[in-house]
Amino acid sequence: MLARKSFKFRHRMVPTVFSDQELAAISIPTLFLVGENEKIYSPQEALNRLRQKAPQIRTMLIPGAGQVLTIVQKEMVNRLILNFLKGIEIKCPGVSPAATGKHR
């Protein structure tokens, strides 16, 4: 009984699944990275679905990585994210680009 009170069972995390309409409605620049060895879902099916339903989302398959791609392929992931961010122009209603500056 003491053990039950001391240790809490962890609940399995279930990934969020967006509907086709929700994916198509994403209008901000978005980068989707997935490891080729992902086990929760098929990475190729996820990429194919995004390419069909939300072509505005930039997708990348990370070789030699699974769920912990930010650790296993950290240099590659960091470079991809930084390059993606460098390509984004800040667009805020009522604010001129000169006032916000550019990502470099």
From TrEMBL:
It comes from Dethiosulfatarculus sandiegensis. This is Alpha/beta hydrolase. It comes from the Bacteria.
